[in-house]
Amino acid sequence: xxxxxxxxxxxxxxxxxxxxxxxxxxxxxxxxxxxxxxxxxxxxxxxxxxxxxxxxxxxxxxxxxxxxxxxxxxxxxxxxxxxxxxxxxxxxxxxxxxxxxxxxxxxxxxxxxxxxxxxxxxxxxxxxxxxxxxxxxxxxxxxxxxxxxxxxxxxxxxxxxxxxxxxxxxxxxxxxxxxxxxxxxxxxxxxxxxxxxxxxxxxxxxxxxxxxxxxxxxxxxxxxxxxxxxxxxxxxxxxxxxxxxxxxxxxxxxxxxxxxxxxxxxxxxxxxxxxxxxxxxxxxxxxxxxxxxxxxxxxxxxxxxxxxxxxxxxxxxxxxxxxxxxxxxxxxxxxxxxxxxxxxxxxxxxxxxxxxxxxxxxxxxxxxxxxxxxxxxxxxxxxxxxxxxxxxxxxxxxxxxxxxxxxxxxxxxxxxxxxxxxxxxxxxxxxxxxxxxxxxxxxxxxxxxxxxxxxxxxxxxxxxxxxxxxxxxxxxxxxxxxxxxxxxxxxxxxxxxxxxxxxxxxxxxxxxxxxxxxxxx
Length: 521
Ligand code: FE
Ligand code: CA
What we know:
Residues 144-487 form the PhoD-like phosphatase metallophosphatase domain. Residues 42-131 form the Phospholipase D N-terminal domain. This is Alkaline phosphatase D family protein. InterPro entries: Metallo-depent_PP-like, PhoD-like_MPP, PhoD-like_sf, PhoD_N, Phospholipid_Metab_Enz. By secondary structure, the chain is of the alpha+beta class. The protein has helices at residues 14-20, 158-165, 205-216, 219-225, 255-269, 340-349, 389-402, 450-456, and strands spanning 44-50, 53-59, 68-76, 84-93, 99-104, 112-119, 122-123, 127-130, 142-147, 170-173, 230-232, 287-291, 295-299, 321-323, 356-360, 379-381, 407-411, 417-423, 433-439, 463-467, 472-479, 482-490, 500-509, 516-518. Helix 3 (205-216) packs parallel to helix 5 (255-269). The radius of gyration is 22 Å and the shape is globular. The chain starts with 13 loop residues before the first helix and ends with a strand. Bound molecules: fe (iii) ion and calcium ion.
């Protein structure tokens, strides 16, 4: 078995070198034999960072893969792999699409590592990852980003390319990693869309696998996976638009089989632990992570355990936008967004000992009233927390009762940047702010008409920022006494190396819920 190296494989970071120059490709294969098949065409990833280890992911690609083959991995303190900290061998099997979920353990807390795979005479590129700080360690700073909604046929991934140039400890991915839709001809005045989905609507395991493989072929997405560990949850499009528990938008009878296929493909393509492997159509995603004494990160699953949306359009499931007068079921106190078990788990997961609690979930939590004039009754979209106001109130009341000073709710899904004050009574501007919300816009997915958001703003005084015409991500710097957020927006979605600009900056001071606007630097 021989490995050839890329021509300039010095000891210098190839990824850094690639990122430093806009004219070189963003992502450079660390080493592979030119005359062999590329076995690592989907890149690699790491996730679920803990003080003693993390998950290392890849999926073998290329023709003539044996049904069962060994993949070895190594993780080192240095990028030249002279000081190996852990290594192992995994079986990549056809039943799991030759995906690998290696669990590195016994590592030092709070430090960076480098990792790579080899299989069938080929070696992967090098990824960078890190462990979380020890639970009792003082932590000066955590730098992380939130991202969601990377619809392939709505843009290239300049947002990921920009994020890969930041020095982030962690990515929180909050849903819509793929979109299940089939190829659509979304030609515009400027011509046909530069990217289209391969295949039709995803329903089966091979179809979902193909979709993940298409998304994961993108070099900028691969580069960001190779830069830092990710903590990941899902939203609807990993399965089906607007799905809710056992019910799909199309009310299809065989939805459990589709859920099982999509959950399997999801697990296969994410840096998830072996223990997270789905059982039939169920996959346990919600989880707690601690970042030293600084923060607890809680991920939620907002899809799998929820009650179906209220008052759907006739003959179908899924979302609707309607007045509370036309749908009294909105206010049914029994309806759940997280399911009873997850709701109770969340109530026990808040951590009063750490200064910050970050709730990584998939959608906008603040009330968004879409009424167009004050004479109308309130109008809400039924798919988000607005469709489950009693459940939202239980969550926020729980926070208020625990007197947690610094809960920050992070979200995605709505393809717009929102910064909000979360309140027990959104209809009373004087109601105390319980927590701060940053709902990040999409990486690419098209958003709402900005004029509609602007018209709704006066009816939503707790929403301090709302921009559906921005796409990109939010970048955060967290310290014990302060959280800073930077909203970074891609100038041209179809340019892979588009400029990314800072649209807004906010701060949250410890002990004072609510975001404070900062000047643009
Ligand atoms: Fe989305
Ligand atoms: Ca969504």
